[in-house]
């Protein structure tokens, strides 16, 4: 944004056929502009081109905006698990997208 990096995301190999989407971050000043959605779409495109058959990710249920993006892009909720992190009780979620 005006030459400043305001978002990031990456894809890592989880196995030969499964890729893992990691660390979707969008600076608060750039939120609401579609950047998060665009970054996730770029990862999906990359994973398909690289020959992966599934893309997975882990998030927390309180990250409503990110979860909305994942759902909109076709990911489905596969697993939920309670955990205690960052000083609070949270619900971790694993989401999957068949490519």
UniProtKB/TrEMBL annotation:
One Pfam family hit: Acetyltransf_1
Keywords carried by this UniProt record: Transferase
Segments forming domain N-acetyltransferase: 1-99
The keyword Lyase appears for this protein: no
Gene3D superfamilies to which the protein is assigned, alphabetical: 3.40.630.30
Protein's name according to its UniProt entry: GNAT superfamily N-acetyltransferase
């Amino acid at each position: 944004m005006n030459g400043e990096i305001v978002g990031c995301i990456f894809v890592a190999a989880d196995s030969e056929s499964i890729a893992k989407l990691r660390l979707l971050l969008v600076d608060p000043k750039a939120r609401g502009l579609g950047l998060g959605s665009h970054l996730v779409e770029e990862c999906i495109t990359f994973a398909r081109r690289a020959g992966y058959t599934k893309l997975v990710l882990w998030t927390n249920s309180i990250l409503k905006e990110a979860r909305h993006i994942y759902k909109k892009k076709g990911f489905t909720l596969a697993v939920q698990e309670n955990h205690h992190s960052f000083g609070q009780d949270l619900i971790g979620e694993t989401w999957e997208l068949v490519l």
